[in-house]
Structure formats: C-alpha cells, structure tokens
Design brief:
single chain, alpha/beta, Rossmann fold, seven-stranded mixed sheet, five-stranded antiparallel sheet, 10 helices, globular, binds zinc ion
Amino acid sequence: MNKSSKQSEQACPVCAFPDLEIFFEMLNVPVYCNLLCPEQQAARNCPRGDIKLAFCPQCGFITNVAFDPARLEYSQDYENSLHCSPRFQDYAQSLATRLLERHNLYDKDIIEIGCGKGDFLLLLCELGNNRGVGFDPSYVPQTDPSQAKQQVKFIQDFYSQRYANYQGELVCCRHTLEHIQNPKDLLKPLRQAIGDRLNTAVFFEVPNALHTFRHLAIWDIIYEHCCYFTPLSLAHTFSFCGFRIGELSEEFDGQFIGLEALPDQGEADSIDRQRSEVEQLASDVNTFASNFKHKVETWSSELKQIEDKGQRAVVWGAGSKGVTFLNVLNIQAPIEYVVDINPRKQGMYVAGTGQQIVSPQFLENYQPDVVLVMNPIYQSEIQQLTQSLGLNTEFMCV
Ligand SMILES: [Zn+2]
C-alpha cells in the first residue's frame, strides 16, 4: 500500500475524461471476499489481484484500473447475503415497503438484477402480491415452498439484452453495479430493454464511496468492487445512460446510496457540473492514502496490545470488511476465528488469512476477551447475542 500519483492511461468509463489518476494501491489481495472456501490451505492460496484506484476529476467516478473481470466468477459458492441479520432485515423491510408505496406496486411485475439468493425480491412480491423475475448467476435453488415463490421466477444468469422480453413496473438492482467494470455495460442495455415504457421505475443501491473515502470506512475496499460511486457520480452515470434521476438518498447510516430513476427520452451528453462536490471529493481522495496508512497502523498497535495482554480476540463478520481487515493487517495466528451468523459461511475459511468461520454459539466454549466488530451498525445486535450466550467481552468497532 503506498500513495502514488500517476496517470492510469485509461479513460473514465462514465464520462470519457482521459487519463484517470491513480491515488491508491493495494496489491495482491484475495479476489473474492465472499467465496465459500471449505479448506484452510486452499483459502490461504486463494487467487489474488491488484487494486489500483483511480479518480475522475470531471465526474467523480472512482474505479480500480487494475481490475480484471476474468479473475472473477460468480458461482453458487459465492455467498454475500446479509439477510441473516435482524438489523439488515429491518432495513430491507422498510426499503421494500417504501418502494411498493411510492410506485404503487401491488399485483405488478418486478425485475431484480443481481438478486443473490432472492430474499429482497421475495419480500417485494410477498408484501405487494407482486410477480417477480430475478437474475443472478450465484442463485441457489431453494426448497422452501412459500406462497410467494409460486409467483417468482429465478434465472441463474447475468441480466443481459437477451432477457429484454422480461419487463416490469419496477427494475431493482442492489449491490451489483459496483461489480461491473463499466457500469454502462449494464445500464445501456437495460435502458434499451425498457424502450418507450417510460413509467418503468428503476431503483439501484450501491455502497457509498463517501463513506469509504471521506469517512474512512477503509475495509470496504475489495477486489470485487471495481467501481466506487458517490451520490453525484452515480447520478452522472445514470444521466449518461438515458435515465432521469428522481430520489437520491444515503441509506443504512450513510453506508449505501439509493437511487430512483425513470427512463428519459434522450441521453445526457455532458455533465451538469457540480464542481464544488467533485473538488471536495478530489481532496478526500488526495489525503486518502495517508489516512489509510494511519488507520492501519493504529489497528496494528491495538492488536499488538491485545496480544501482549494475552487476550483472546475474535473478528465478528466474515463479509468483505472482515476479510479485508484480516488481510490488510495480515493477521493469522493472533486471531484464530471469525464469527458469522450466516450458517452457509460457518465451517468455511477466510480467503487469504485462513481463519475458520464459526457460529456465535462456538464462543460459549471459546470465551473471547475481545470481539472486533466489523460494522458498527450491527454492534447492538451482536452485544445482545453475546449477552444471551452469557459472554462478558469487550467490544471494539473497526
Ligand atoms: Zn468521469
């Protein structure tokens, strides 16, 4: 990890500004944070790739110019569902209710691109008695025959032009666009598929780059995310692809951006410049490499203290943040286990550093002194769970 200021010789995929400037590098990181790995040695020998983040001074878009999509394959072994968490379920429920009410989606057709295991699409269909079609190459057929499932169809594939015959009153897509090297490769075919059905509402949700680069949620930087959007650059991207922006909001304590849009008649050919916002982001980006380094050093010394005191620590959360935290700090022996409430992850191993992923109940015997919480938004739910297990531990949010 070092600060470098060099031209990438790549143009911005959103606005075509030439020569994006690389402002941050993190090399040789696991390419998958969310791939289930059943063997420790295989987890440690996982495929790796480089992150070289570049910033567009014209539209504010941030991208990994070293990203190679051929390294990633989203199969059924890919697991990034957050729906095991009550806090996340509450959020999904309130978001679904809001979308249904705002767009009057009752007895209608809904499409979800990148539906994962289908939890959110099923929720939209259950709450509004809607019909759904979900696209995701990592979809795993479920056996639970709930009523809504009769009305929902899953297609185990990437959404593309060949599925243009599927139409809906709402097209939603959550936590998918940031995985696509050129966001226009998804948005333009989608806009074409919508055609002149100008009432089709579109809702996209992505991680909020302001949270990562301004508020230093540095563990959110992962190889799987080749794009980092701020509210402004997300709006620019949609305008360039023929959409008119409606509601644009920061969600989930500022960790996500939600964008609602409608198809527009034409495409924007230039940016409605909001210079001050892009300039402020440029200054966040310029100081990011040194802020990152400082935060990593602080955590190294915290962990050293835990080790020196002979305390036992576990990481809570085997998602992107946990995997990045362990790999950036290169922690192996001092932390043996990572807790995750998702049963599909339990028994598997963390990519790169190789910790075993265990259930919360495992801690009853293990009795850690310190729980390192990877996302502060889940702290109270984690505290409740550990109290119910009779544990008396210290909590630290990374
Ligand atoms: Zn740009």
